[in-house]
Amino acid sequence: MIKAYIFDLGNVLVGFDREQVLRRLGDGAGCGAPAFKRAYAAAGIEDRLERGLMGERELFAWFQSLGFDGTFDEFGLLWCDHFHELKPVSSLLAELKGRAKILILSNTNSLHYRFLCARFPVLGLADVAVLSYQLGLRKPEPAIYRAALKAAGAQPHEAVFIDDMKDNVDAAAALGINAVRLDEPESVRELLKPFLAAEART
Q1: Are residues 40 and 8 in the same domain?
Q2: Same domain, yes or no, for 54 and 116?
Q3: CA–CA separation, 51 and 65 (whole Å)
């Protein structure tokens, strides 16, 4: 019996194009995309943010050091306003609500998550959000999946995990979780059909 459906956030529930985002941020900072990407990688920004090791104001100060001269609120909008809801997946949350626990398991940061929850109310259907920046852990580290299972009150075989990244899916599967890789939002129902059908028979 499936007790929990665990959804990734980026490019599962909400979509974005990483390269477009980096170009937009580089242009917004005033340094251009190539320089921004080099600075972003060299400073380890993504890892620090997603582990909760870098605060929002520290991130803002770093962005200013690249040439940005706007306000913190203007920066926040630039940093966050590039997501769109993936309706084929998000609509499934309402159908699953009450049938099993719904979890979000995401490598994310506080700015993004706060923005996403305000922009996309459907995320409020999740019973639990297991977020990298709150735990100091990132997928595909095994400990973050164990934290999600504990939050769900489920054994690995009682949970289904949906992610767009192969490494994350493989890591979940290695722990015995039913893990599926989502390449196209429109395929989510087909991918989950075996689990939903089994649930209907119980």
Answers
A1: no
A2: no
A3: 22
**Final residue before a domain boundary, out of 50, 80, 110:** 80
**Residue 183 in tokens:** 């390449």
Q: Are residues 32 and 43 in the same domain?
A: yes
pLDDT at 52 > cutoff 60: yes
Residues 102 and 73 in one domain: no
CATH number assigned to the domain comprising residue 164: 3.40.50.1000
Q: Give the structural domain span for 43.
A: 18-80
In angstroms, the Cα distances linking 123 to 56, 171, 175 are 22, 24, 26
Q: How many CA atoms lie within 13 A of 44 on its CB side?
A: 6
Q: Are 85 and 13 in contact (CB under 8 A)?
A: yes
Contact present, 67 and 168 (Cβ < 8 Å): no
Confirm if 25 and 79 have CB atoms less than 8 A apart: yes
In this predicted structure, what is the pLDDT of residue 196?
87
Which residues, 6 or more positions from 118, have their beta carbon under 8 angstroms from its beta carbon?
none
Tokens 């940061």 appear where? 109
Average pLDDT, the chain: 95
Return d(Cα 169, Cα 178) in angstroms, integer: 9
96 in the same domain as 52: no
pLDDT tens, position by position, 159-182 = 999 999 999 999 999 999 999 999
Give the full edge-to-edge strand order of the sheet including 128-131. 128-131, 101-106, 4-7, 159-163, 178-181
